[in-house]
């Protein structure tokens, strides 16, 4: 019996992962074997249309099929992908939105924890435009409706020779449905056990097929409501004398100030208290609890339309099209804004609002009278693909297509404070002197600000931006000739791509007048021309212990408008030892090109506190490296730094080069019977010239401590000195190609099909072991070991992750049960004796049941986090006293889905 490589049954609620080899390796006999050899498919990891028995030799691939997605009840793709054991670190979701590096509201996948921009995301084998609110670095998965997905193929191997840049950790290829005949409709609703976090979705798909071709269209809607953080974590917890106690922000609602005599005071925080009252500041008494003004889950709404068509122009030529459009609206709750953070506020002793009798510096004052802030985003993303494909000869085919994707967005923040206007309200010489003048403001004490002042100083920001991608690709694939062991497969092609990104922040943010981080506009673009070729060469066949041996090779040459040329290769061996045992190995190179923000991020200058290592260098040990280097630089004896700060340049760096990676995987697939498949794969990834932002002070220290000023940080791209005075006149904290990363580990997989009491069942397990994750931030820098650690902002790098799933069906009933395990991890910033120094291993249980009334109507019910497992406390928490990028904050929740086919 021949088996397709797409799974026939599902075995998970939240996720079922099937190694590609699971069914491809089941032996076939007689006519069935011949039929399997005739059947050809193209899977993620190869451009060649492979025979079925060659599929599992491409590399370690995980498949999530449509039935698994439906059972999970997920309304967004990242929910599924971020549960994969091969995922690690941090990626955007609605529970980690405050820490999303690609823009608020965006969602991504992060294979191996190497970063969202080192995982290449494809849609039907083609690239997808970056998404967000402008100048973004990765695909926003929100743009792809879950109901349209046929399957997701995850290649856990470097693939730049096959697909080009950014396929360092692997490739996620999302494959949509292409054609149906009729109408499919579904509605879904769910909530948490506590009655919040409602999720709802509705999808309708229409399609028709005929001898001339097929046409399919869909309308998709999904919405998730907010869950307030205080409902899961009432306050922020910190350790005090061996106990966890509530704490809060030092940006208080009354105002925290430092008096001229050094005393720190806090002003009245009681609306009914003395408006001129103040007392010595106490964190326990005055700190602000932020949790009621943050969300554990942020609301998001998506509306999408899409259409897919295929028309037979002739017997050998087809026209195909893909049209997609998605509108996303998302929002995040934020604490009321504070002043004193981005600009010092000095209030004189004789100022009419100052009750202390001393000059003071208002260090922090949270303007809570106006209420919380809201961050909001609205993005529109469309994608148009049109192309031709056909057959050149019985064993040759070709395709050519154009692909245009564009994403535009508007984002902003409410209740942002104009610091220039704050200054104006404190200027007693001008405030309140006329109807057109600024009103006078009293910031020393909660409730002292009048409605006129609050309206005068607050505003709503609006930023605009977008991303644009245009590409053309053409390829051919076929068999060039036959060898004694079989036919030689070949594929080759050409690709052209232009990437563009831009972002225009609100003018007050650009000017630095807002109480938020200043930003500069970003705009940039680059283009790439690439050619590639791939070979599949059968070397041996039908010998003792060599049922077949095939060499797979690929090469790509890329020419970038900004970076010059880059060549990559891939070489692999696919050794079928006996019909039940296969060994596969792949060695490849890969690269990642700098993204638009890294290249073109607004360059800015600022005086930062920095120590010149050569300050008074002649007083150092004459044998020290710093002494010799400063003397060799021509600095005079007695040289002194002119001040405590140095003008430092930050922002993008157009001199960045592509990162380079070397990947190696080797594994085995054992199928002792048609009902059992076991897989084991080892992976090793080395990244050089990784892009890293290094502080200017670190560059100086490293340079002058390197013998002979030989370090890369000693070049003029890092700093220069005035030849007359010796003073540093240029110092860069811009990103550099300076870091190295080393990652290694094991993947294990198992699939068992069986019957139990008349129930057709399948059990799957997928386990990942992270042996090494080392980062060297710059040459000579201390190696940071992340394996087995959990971080404050980079997510978890637990050594063990796994999912195990059981699916059963009998007649109209079917169900699944999934167990997800996240291994224990030590807090990278905590002392061993601290509370929360180590996160324990966590197990999540998910279950679902489905009933088919007939061929047309089905209803399913699912429960996630069945045993209401709470997120563990860690010292380096991001929000909610835990790592929101790793653990579930919501607790037990349910969902129900009704589907109908016309």
Number of helical segments with 4 or more residues: 12
C-alpha-based Rg, rounded: 30 Å
Q: Mean pLDDT, as a whole number? A: 89
Largest sheet: 22 strands, antiparallel, barrel
Which key phrases capture this entry?
51 strands, 6-stranded mixed sheet, mainly beta, globular, 902 residues, 22-stranded antiparallel barrel
Structure explained in plain terms:
This protein has 902 residues and is mostly beta strands. It contains twelve helices and 51 strands. The strands form nine sheets. It has a 22-stranded antiparallel beta barrel. It has a six-stranded mixed β-sheet with strand order 1-4-7-8-5-6. Strands 15, 16, 17, 21, 22 and 23 form a six-stranded antiparallel β-sheet that branches. The relative contact order is 0.13.
Write the layout of secondary structure elements.
Layout (H helix, E strand, L loop, with lengths): L17 E2 L1 H4 L5 H9 L1 E2 L8 E2 L9 E5 H7 L4 H5 L37 E5 L2 E2 L21 E7 L4 H4 L6 E7 L5 E11 L6 E12 L2 E12 L2 E2 L7 E5 L2 E5 L8 E4 L4 E4 L10 E3 L2 H4 L8 E3 L2 E13 L4 E18 L3 E2 L5 E3 L12 E7 L6 E21 L2 E18 L2 E2 L1 H8 L24 H7 E2 L3 E21 L2 E19 L2 H5 L10 E22 L2 E15 L3 E15 L2 E12 L3 H5 L3 E6 L15 H8 L12 E6 L8 E15 L2 E18 L2 H9 L14 E3 L6 E5 L2 E22 L2 E18 L7 E2 L3 E2 L5 E2 L2 E11 L2 E10 L2 E3 L10 E2 L2 E11 L4 E8 L28 E9 L1
Parallel strand pairs: 5-8, 35-39, 43-47
Antiparallel strand pairs: 1-4, 2-3, 4-7, 5-6, 7-8, 9-10, 9-51, 10-11, 11-19, 12-18, 13-14, 15-16, 15-23, 16-17, 19-20, 20-24, 21-23, 22-23, 24-25, 25-28, 26-27, 28-29, 29-30, 30-31, 31-32, 32-33, 33-36, 34-35, 36-37, 37-40, 38-39, 40-41, 41-42, 41-45, 43-44, 45-46, 46-49, 47-48, 49-50, 50-51
């Amino acid at each position: 019996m021949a088996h397709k490589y797409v799974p026939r049954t599902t075995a998970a609620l939240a996720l079922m992962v099937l190694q590609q080899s699971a069914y491809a390796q089941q032996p076939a006999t007689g006519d069935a074997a011949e039929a399997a050899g005739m059947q050809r498919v193209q899977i993620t990891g190869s451009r060649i249309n492979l025979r079925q028995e060659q599929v599992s030799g491409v590399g370690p691939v995980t498949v999530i099929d449509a039935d698994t997605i439906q059972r999970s009840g997920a309304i967004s793709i990242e929910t599924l992908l971020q549960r994969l054991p091969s995922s690690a670190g941090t990626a955007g979701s609605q529970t980690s939105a405050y820490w999303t590096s690609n823009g608020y509201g965006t969602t991504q996948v992060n294979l191996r924890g190497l970063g969202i921009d080192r995982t290449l995301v494809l849609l039907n084998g083609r690239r997808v435009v970056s998404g967000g609110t402008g100048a973004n670095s990765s695909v926003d998965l929100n743009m792809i409706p879950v109901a349209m997905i046929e399957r997701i193929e995850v290649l856990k191997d470097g693939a730049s020779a096959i697909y080009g840049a950014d396929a360092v950790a692997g490739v996620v290829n999302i494959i949509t449905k292409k054609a149906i005949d009729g109408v499919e409709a579904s509605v879904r609703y769910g909530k948490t056990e506590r009655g919040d976090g409602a999720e709802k979705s509705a999808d309708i798909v229409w399609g028709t097929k005929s001898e001339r071709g097929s046409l399919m269209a869909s309308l998709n809607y999904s919405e998730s409501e907010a869950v307030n953080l205080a409902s899961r974590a009432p306050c922020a917890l910190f350790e005090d004398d061996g106990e966890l106690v509530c704490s809060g922000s030092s940006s208080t609602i009354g105002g925290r100030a430092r008096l001229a005599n050094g005393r720190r005071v806090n002003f009245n925080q009681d609306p009914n208290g003395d408006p001129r009252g103040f007392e010595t500041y106490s964190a326990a008494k005055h700190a602000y609890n932020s949790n009621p003004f943050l969300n554990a889950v942020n609301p998001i709404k998506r509306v999408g339309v899409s259409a897919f068509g295929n028309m037979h122009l002739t017997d050998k030529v087809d026209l195909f099209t893909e049209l997609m459009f998605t509108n996303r609206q998302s929002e995040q709750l934020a604490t009321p804004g504070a002043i004193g953070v981005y600009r010092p506020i000095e209030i004189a002793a004789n100022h009419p609002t100052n009750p202390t009798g001393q000059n003071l510096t208002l260090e922090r004052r949270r303007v809570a009278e106006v209420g919380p802030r809201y961050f909001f985003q609205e993005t529109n993303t469309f994608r148009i693909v049109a192309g031709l494909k056909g057959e050149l000869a019985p064993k040759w085919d070709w395709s050519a297509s154009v692909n245009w994707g564009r994403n535009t967005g508007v984002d902003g923040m409410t209740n942002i404070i104009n610091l220039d206007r704050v200054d104006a309200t404190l200027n007693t010489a001008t405030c309140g002197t006329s109807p057109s003048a600024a009103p006078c403001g009293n910031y020393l004490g909660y409730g002292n600000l009048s409605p006129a002042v609050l309206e005068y100083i607050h505003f709503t920001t609006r930023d605009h931006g977008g991303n644009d991608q245009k590409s053309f690709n053409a390829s051919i694939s076929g068999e060039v000739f036959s060898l004694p062991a079989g036919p030689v497969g070949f594929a080759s092609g050409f690709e052209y791509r232009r990437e563009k990104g831009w972002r225009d922040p609100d003018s007050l943010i650009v000017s630095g007048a807002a109480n938020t981080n200043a930003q500069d506009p970003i705009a940039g673009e680059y283009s790439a021309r690439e050619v590639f070729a791939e070979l599949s060469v059968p070397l041996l066949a039908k010998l003792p212990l060599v049922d077949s041996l095939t060499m797979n090779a690929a090469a790509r040459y890329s020419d970038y408008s900004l970076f010059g040329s880059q060549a990559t290769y891939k070489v692999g061996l696919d050794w079928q030892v006996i019909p039940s045992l296969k060994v596969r190995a792949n060695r490849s190179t890969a690269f990642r090109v700098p993204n638009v923000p890294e290249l073109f991020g607004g360059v800015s200058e600022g005086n930062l506190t920095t120590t010149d290592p050569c300050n008074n260098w002649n007083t150092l040990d004459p044998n020290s490296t710093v002494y010799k280097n400063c003397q060799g630089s021509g600095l005079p004896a007695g040289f002194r730094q002119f001040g405590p700060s140095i003008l430092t340049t930050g922002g993008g760096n157009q001199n960045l080069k592509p990162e380079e990676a070397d990947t190696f995987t080797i594994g085995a697939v054992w199928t002792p019977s048609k009902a059992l498949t076991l897989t084991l794969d080892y992976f090793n990834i080395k990244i050089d010239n990784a892009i890293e932002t290094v502080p200017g002070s670190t560059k100086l220290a490293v340079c002058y401590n390197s013998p002979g000023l030989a370090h890369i940080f000693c070049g003029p791209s890092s700093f220069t000195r005035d030849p007359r005075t010796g003073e540093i006149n240029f110092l860069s904290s811009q990103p550099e190609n300076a870091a190295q990363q080393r990652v290694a580990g094991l993947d294990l997989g198992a699939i068992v099909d069986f019957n139990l009491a008349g129930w057709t069942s399948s059990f799957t397990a997928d386990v990942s072991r992270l042996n090494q994750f080392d980062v060297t931030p710059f040459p000579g820098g201390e190696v940071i070991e992340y394996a087995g650690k959990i971080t404050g902002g980079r997510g978890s790098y637990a050594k063990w992750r796994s999912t195990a799933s059981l699916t059963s069906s009998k007649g109209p009933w079917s169900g699944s049960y999934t167990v997800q395990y996240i291994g224990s991890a030590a807090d990278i910033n905590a002392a061993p004796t601290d509370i929360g120094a180590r996160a324990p291993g966590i197990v999540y249980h998910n279950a679902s049941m489905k009933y088919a009334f007939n061929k047309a109507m089905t209803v399913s019910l699912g429960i996630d986090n069945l045993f209401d497992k709470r997120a563990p406390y860690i010292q380096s928490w991001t929000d909610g006293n835990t790592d929101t990028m790793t653990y579930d904050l919501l607790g037990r929740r349910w969902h129900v889905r009704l589907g109908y086919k016309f």
